């Protein structure tokens, strides 16, 4: 052992290892191999480099730690327990059990000290890139010459599997382009995946060479148990501020066990015999399980004291900064309280029929123009579809290495990386991120959307070109199943506004919806502003569905339900039906999720149970609408893919016409 390190350090490394191994063994479930191999670098990072204060887990300027390879969760739980984050030994012993604070993969908001939910490989590193972008934007907003209020670093541990996933490539390429020097990644290169050696599928790639080509600094440690070499590499990574850094660490999965360097060490307990052999080889007592020597607790206590000193010093910086910059301090404090600026809603455009027909993507762009001027925390961009998505507010500058004050994010053609980065930005709690692409490409980013919902993060997903009516690009670009796919994600609110007024209300909802993500489906084609939306959309959109056009000439005999561009279509059908003496109610249905949350009394007032003649119209798969139209109702939807043609021709070809709406509803009434 180098004089720089002692037997006490090695004891602490092994404590981390065997807490993790004992967790997996007791649960008879989990991944012991990665913690055995990663323990040395994790120990050094957490005790010597990571700036954190366990007594203040939400300290604003703490370093962020992301365990992207979330299957190694037992490693993180060992660290949280030892570091003093309040994770008790009893919770450690309840690993992977119902209701425990130590679930099978790290879950943000569930366990104190877990910065983001990880497990689906590649998502964690994508989040880390977003966290680094957030750090740069916040530093540019609040730091002053000689006063670095925000200068935290983002540390991540990634695995071979993480770096095989495409989302990691997208995000890391973007990080290199943006020269995110605060981002530091430790690559656990153990050459093993679930199938066996990575050479089975990952043999020709030089990961370090790839990251060098991305513009990253690449460091290497040939022995992941060499504390001296690890310490040098971590110090060099810490010192690098110009570009992101990756440290390629050659580790051994299942280190010290009979299963070392085999796939068998990945996702199953060692077993009693191999556990005994591992403890004997590494000089660890066979009993008791979950042993934490006093010397190890002392090491982590010293680290906690350093963290407390760092956070106390930051408090002094914060006080001095606040005294010199009172307006910035007021804004920062407002954001920390999760409050929006007073009267921000007054900036929302008040669309009327006099504005003329307007695509909802264009209306969204006008709303963004207004909101960007009053919400400094609103940041976002597009996956290389800015002119189509209308996501660039007037006067906005692009975030870049040369201009960290820019609030417009150029993600390039990286939908999945964009989604993961948006979640990382949202996790700052100080920014409201949005990102745009075509609705069809929501499929490319679905895992990130799902994790935004799982974590309850305020990521806003702006999806334009929302139906077959985008027209000539044809079925490769025309979404059919994507709306239903988004609606099926628990915790995600999907909004499909019918006109400019509903679009403004969709943005009002998304900005106020602080505890979950929002997806907007917006049109390419122009839509008229509906008189009923002007009167009722503010309350109606928040409730998911509302009567946008009431029956005339008596109580309604039938209901027409629609979302988005089909609402104006069914209103024309309603006009013709009423001319024939058939009073019909039109219900605009921008959000299934919000409607389903309403009290039964409201839902029945909009969709009276006694009215059985119901037709839902939506240019997407009809699946799911049956819950609202009932067994006796009908759905006019898209049973197959679209076609390449002008939108008007497609409407006729697929039956999205007032004549067809009238005919189908009459058939329902005829019974």
Word description of this protein:
This protein is 43% helix and 13% strand. It starts with 6 loop residues before the first helix and ends with a helix. The strands form five sheets. It has a six-stranded parallel sheet, with helices on both faces. It has 25 helices and 20 strands. By secondary structure, the protein is of the alpha/beta class.
Walk across the major sheet and give the strand order.
10-9-11-12-14-13
- Helical content, roughly? 40-55%
Radius of gyration, whole Å: 28 Å
What characterizes the major β-sheet?
A: 6 strands, parallel
| Beta strands, count | 20
Mean pLDDT over the full residue set: 97
The span between the termini is 87 Å
Proportion in β-strands: 5-15%
List the defining traits of the structure above.
671 residues; alpha/beta; five-stranded parallel beta sheet; 25 helices
List the helices and strands and how they pair.
Blueprint: H1 7-27, H2 33-49, E1 64-67, H3 73-83, H4 89-92, H5 123-142, E2 154-159, H6 160-164, H7 166-178, E3 183-189, E4 192-193, E5 196-197, H8 207-214, E6 217-221, H9 227-239, E7 245-250, H10 272-281, H11 294-324, H12 326-336, E8 358-359, H13 360-374, E9 378-382, H14 386-389, E10 408-410, H15 415-426, E11 432-438, H16 446-455, E12 460-464, H17 482-487, E13 493-495, H18 500-512, E14 518-521, E15 526-527, H19 531-542, E16 546-549, E17 558-562, H20 566-579, E18 584-588, H21 592-596, H22 600-606, E19 614-617, H23 626-629, E20 634-636, H24 647-654, H25 658-670
Parallel strand pairs: 1-2, 2-3, 3-7, 6-7, 9-10, 9-11, 11-12, 12-14, 13-14, 17-18, 17-19, 19-20
Antiparallel strand pairs: 4-5, 8-15, 16-18
